[in-house]
Specification:
2 copies of one chain form a homodimer. By secondary structure, chain A is of the alpha/beta class. Chain A contains 8 helices and 7 strands. The longest helix of chain A is centred in the C-terminal third of the chain and has 23 residues.
């Protein structure tokens, strides 16, 4: 078109840009990759933990290993405040579900179809290495000093232990959780191949959520926060 | 013999009592059980760690999982002083070998017939889940902040990584060590059954050592230390 100078697109749009329009290709691919490795059929319950380092280390292990949901039963004496030097901010990529009591947590998990397996050293406990991770499995870890309560044990579908063979009678909880999560992930890897198991709609929803979080993170970085 | 009152055995013995004469049956059985679960063909190298919690957590995992030998390469800036709240004294049941440099440590391990596998995230690293733990294997974990040095990588027989699939790019070292040691133990368990792999003379020697340590521990308890 001749004359009248250049024409500009209006600056205002009727809809805000989609996160996928703002993020660079590399970031979008990374999100896709992480979502592809995620599972919602393996989950971890932290029952009344008290140590900020342990909480943080377990969250970081979950995030790194593709476990999307973590369930936290409140310790009445301690605020759930994972050590941020250890989490390195990974908690924002997780869904952390909070409960006042183990009963509430159990009800939610049972409604979702989970078997609830408690980590404890008990006569007749199943070896971690003999467990099946085929269905929906929730792994419960109790308080660092007191372990899980008799009430929690009574409400569980099973008790498992990590076979120990030393004078040491217990593992640090971040270590126990790491051993159990890694075992579950490798069990599935060997039987189903790599990758997560989200349904297409779950994957779409999580992709969208990670994109929004990534935009927020980018903005924070720009502002120098 | 009649008359002359009762006769007593002399109080002095020509040889001191054996630890096995002093310890109760239960303790002797426990020692036998632990020795039966020990291995000297799987070992861990801690290369220039700096965090006392991490050092302690790894030692506790090794002791609990039956790994008898731990190799420590000195960090020139930090004394190797594992946090005793975390170790809970387990280090006395281990053989901790100390070196000034990784080169010295490597030489000792190679002389013992070990393959040296370094934990690092590198292109082409072997997945932990694809590793064989058939022979003598040493697993090396590097400094928390700097990882392993290029020099260590160059001297290794292989590099392995724990397949991660989250935004988190690294695991805490106590978590990584727990994942790797548990994997190695379960790998052998599935192929060889439970139990350790000490030769009869190694088992005798270690039994004797654990008995002596148990007597010392008992004396300490009596003195209220």
């Amino acid at each position: 078109m001749a004359g009248g100078g250049p024409k500009y697109e209006p600056l205002e749009r009727t809809t805000p840009p989609e996160p996928s329009e703002i993020l660079v290709e590399e970031r979008l691919r990374r999100i896709e990759q992480v979502v592809g490795g995620r599972t919602r059929t393996l989950t971890v319950v932290l029952d009344q933990l008290e140590d900020a380092f342990n909480m943080a280390a377990v969250l970081r292990t979950c995030e790194a290993m593709g476990v999307q949901d973590v369930h936290v039963v409140r310790n009445p004496e301690v605020t759930f405040q994972p050590n941020s030097t250890v989490t390195q901010g990974c908690d924002k990529w997780l869904d952390i579900h909070r409960y006042e009591t183990f009963g509430e947590c159990r009800a939610a998990l049972k409604a979702g179809g989970f078997s609830i397996w408690v980590s404890a050293i008990r006569e007749g406990a199943t070896s971690l290495f003999e467990m099946s991770f085929d269905g929906k499995v929730a792994l419960v870890f109790g308080n660092e000093r007191h372990g899980v309560s008799p009430e929690v044990l009574a409400q569980a579908d099973g008790v498992f232990w990590i076979p120990m063979r030393g004078f040491t009678q217990s593992l640090n909880i971040s270590v126990a959780a790491a051993a159990a999560i890694t075992r579950a992930v490798s069990w599935r890897l060997e039987r189903r191949g790599p990758g997560g198991d989200l349904a297409p709609d779950e994957a779409r929803e999580l992709t969208r959520k990670f994109q929004v979080l990534s935009v927020k993170q980018r903005k924070k970085l720009y502002r120098g926060e």
